[in-house]
Amino acid sequence: MIWKRFLLALGLMSYTLSFIERVHLLNETLPLTIQDGWYKEKLPGDMLGFFFNSGKYLVCDTKEKQEPKSWLRTDFIEFNGAKRVFIYIGYTIGKCKSNSKYCKEQFKLYTAQTNKSASSPKPPNGFEEIALANPKNLKDGVPDEKDVIVLNATIKAKMGGFYLALLDQGVCLTLYSIKLVYYVCPERGKYLDLIKFPKTISPAEDIVGSQGQEVHGFCSDSNAKNTTELLGVCTTKGVWKVNSDVRCLCKPGYGYLPTPKAHCAECGHGQYKNSLNNSKCKRCPNGSYSFGRNTMCVCHPGLFRMNKNKYDEPCYALPSGPKSINTTTWNRSSILVSWIPSRDKALAFTVECFMCKNDKDKKCVEPCNSKTIFHPGKSDLKRQVLVSGLKSGSRFKFLVFGVKRLNQKVQKSEWKYSVTFGNTKEG
């Protein structure tokens, strides 16, 4: 008979805190549920050997005239795919009196591996010793539950299953619990935010490349992409070990969110993410909106940024032309163009001159001739410019552009300006 239990509460806590999953092949604690069902063997005579009482196995043949020897053997226990089984036996041992000739303060643990179809072995035939329980500093008197000691041992799977056996040679022993556990690396482990590895039974040894240890994973989110081969190593204690460069990254247009479970969420309206990484979506900078499946932010019409490829920079409007622009006829060949200066010291102005066909012409598309002179210059102006070398008795159109650094990044056809007209005197 085999007892197999999954302690769900303990398993969930373990997964949440340490990302380790344990499977119990046997989980016997007080009171033991086996109800005196294990095989027992002792030497002929009056000794009791192992016996079952009040939910515990006990043995205490310390007053015999010959050295006691008795065995307690479990039923067959299947490995169920486990490669290494961890054994935890809770027990107490009574301290020997000085006049007890055959009393001992230790016992031995044995195991025999076989297949289920084979006949049950009787110890010691086919059994090998795997652990010695030899506690120190035992206290006087009869030990109880608060004095329980735990013996740890392990078995590597070689066949379909195994038996355990305890050898008594004069010990006063009480068996309180026996737990047989193997570890499983869970489907997801610590630090594996967007990587999913299949549930894997822990290997017998922590050697890279051994069977069941190096495992290929995959991205847990369809909107994530891996940049390296997704290899993880499942250790004997059910912990995934993964190099720091092994990871899945959220695609452009998708931001990383850690809860309720790690995933890549599509960037919302007015948000963007333009690179392959596990950062959150960002809000579009001022003056821009998300575009191209939320992988970038482009400027609203009429707005511009200094570097059109830097999507994290805000967009600005170009400066307007000057206010209250006027022209004053200076003489037969000169016109003074003036305006109210700006309080913005970073703002300058540029002027362009066009000749009109007549006083009714508003388009005035013909540029002023090459002999036209602008004083103090055609650009970097603050409040006025004197335009000379003009044809007498003619009408002219002047465009005055507001100019900042941003203008240099934008085609001139997009620049803003103020317009005014002026006439030269008759010759």
From TrEMBL:
Residues 1-18 form the signal peptide. The keyword Transmembrane applies. InterPro entries: Ephrin_rcpt_lig-bd_dom, Ephrin_rcpt_TKs, FN3_dom, FN3_sf, Galactose-bd-like_sf, Ig-like_fold, Tyr-kin_ephrin_A/B_rcpt-like. One of its GO terms (cellular component) is plasma membrane. Residues 1-190 form the Eph LBD domain. It is found in: Membrane. It is a single-pass membrane protein. Keywords: ATP-binding, Membrane, Nucleotide-binding, Receptor, Signal, Transmembrane, Transmembrane helix. GO terms for molecular function: ATP binding. This is Eph LBD domain-containing protein. It comes from Exaiptasia diaphana. The lineage of its organism: Eukaryota, Metazoa, Cnidaria, Anthozoa, Hexacorallia.
